[in-house]
Amino acid sequence: MKFKVHFSLYILAAMAVPFVGIAQTAQGPNYILLSDKYGDPGYVGLMAGYGARSIDDPMDGFSAGNLSGSEVASLFQKTCLAKPFDAAAYAEAMKSNAPEFRPTVANLPDFSAPKPLIGSFSVAATTLSQNVSDYGISDIWLGEDGENLNNRPFARFSGSLIITGPFGTKNSYAPQCNFIVKVNKITDSKELIDAVQAALPGFTATKRVEKPKYGYGIWLGSPIEGRIPRVTVTASKLNKPEQVVYLTIQLLPPGVVK
After folding, report:
1. First to last CA, the chain
2. pLDDT tens digits, one per residue of 15-44
3. Which residues does 250 contact at the CB level (< 8 Å), separation at least 6?
4. Where do the domains of the chain lie?
5. Measured CA distances, 252 to 30, 36, 171, 184 (Å)
6. What is the 3-state secondary structure (H, E, C) of 59-101?
7. Quick one: which of 86, 112, 188, 192 could link to 69 by a disulfide (CB 3.0–4.6 Å)?
8. CA distance linking residue 129 with residue 2, whole number of Å
9. Which residues constitute the signal peptide according to the record (predicted)?
10. How far apart are CA 40 and CA 235, in angstroms?
11. Cβ neighbours for 200, distance < 8 A, ≥ 6 positions apart
């Protein structure tokens, strides 16, 4: 599906990427999945430059996995929640619990943009890693290498909209662990949200919405060195044969509590 682009020059909370380096990686898509400051999915590298009139949804290129809401939540719990923000544990959990998610690398080239868009700047090429299956993407980002992502075009998917702007490292919402999947067995969001809730003992639900076409939930945990962990889950296209589910856990910057 192509989305109309809504351009905004806000500086996003930093969702940069170097992910865990894993041996025997293959070439993957040359964009990186990242969560924005709202817990929505976004991508660095999806746009070659600024000024795009339309953008393809990356999930259109994936096949639907035959997973239920509880099965998706279980994958997220085993890989991202069991030992949150532990890169080595994440890598091992992916191998043990989601071997269909193959370690891949994404190559982002040198990037520059002239005035008057957002000022003249350039950033160096970088190679980043994430895990890709036939039905989705997962990754963990601990905040490294943000200088090579700063000011690159960033596309954030929020419902039926894409909002684009420069990626920024200020107020970085890292570390974070992310999962986006296309599935075909989630016809309502209740089972999914209930299963995520059950995997979050000690977390407080701050928002829960269940609609015929979509649903989402947000939970906050106890502070970790003064920073609040936040889990966000969104499910969309629930009235369609194939649905998209996004799950993320982020450690909010100091002073941010929602």
Report:
1. 31
2. 333 344 334 567 778 899 999 999 999 999
3. 35, 39, 173, 174, 175, 176, 229, 230, 232
4. 2-251
5. 27, 11, 9, 32
6. HHHCCCECCCHHHHHHHHHHHHHCCCCCHHHHHHHHHHHCCCC
7. 192
8. 26
9. 1-23
10. 11
11. 81, 219, 221, 231
Mean pLDDT confidence for 112-122: 72
Q: Is the peptide bond before 116 cis (omega within 30 degrees of 0)?
A: yes
Cβ atoms of residues 217 and 205 within 8 Å: yes
The pLDDT of residue 53: 72
Q: Which amino acid is at 214?
A: Y
Q: How far apart are CA 18 and CA 21, in angstroms?
A: 8
More confident residue, 109 or 170: 109
| Whether residue 175 has a cis bond before it, omega within 30° of 0 | yes
At residue 194, the 3 state secondary structure works out as helix
- Rounded distance, CA 97 to CA 219, Å? 24
Name the pairing type of β-strands 176-183 and 121-123.
unpaired
Q: Give the number of other CB atoms < 10 A from CB of residue 89.
A: 16
Q: How far is 247 from 78, CA to CA, in rounded Å?
A: 13
Q: What is the pLDDT of residues 135-176, one digit of tens each?
A: 999 999 988 888 898 888 999 887 777 888 888 776 558 899
Contact 38, 158 (CB under 8 A): yes
The token duo for 252 is 């909010």
**CA nearest to 223, candidates 203, 199, 198:** 203
Q: Are 59 and 182 in contact (CB under 8 A)?
A: yes
Q: Is 126 helix (H, G, I), strand (E, B) or coil?
A: strand
**Residue whose token pair is 């999914």:** 192
Please give the single-letter amino acid code of residue 110.
D
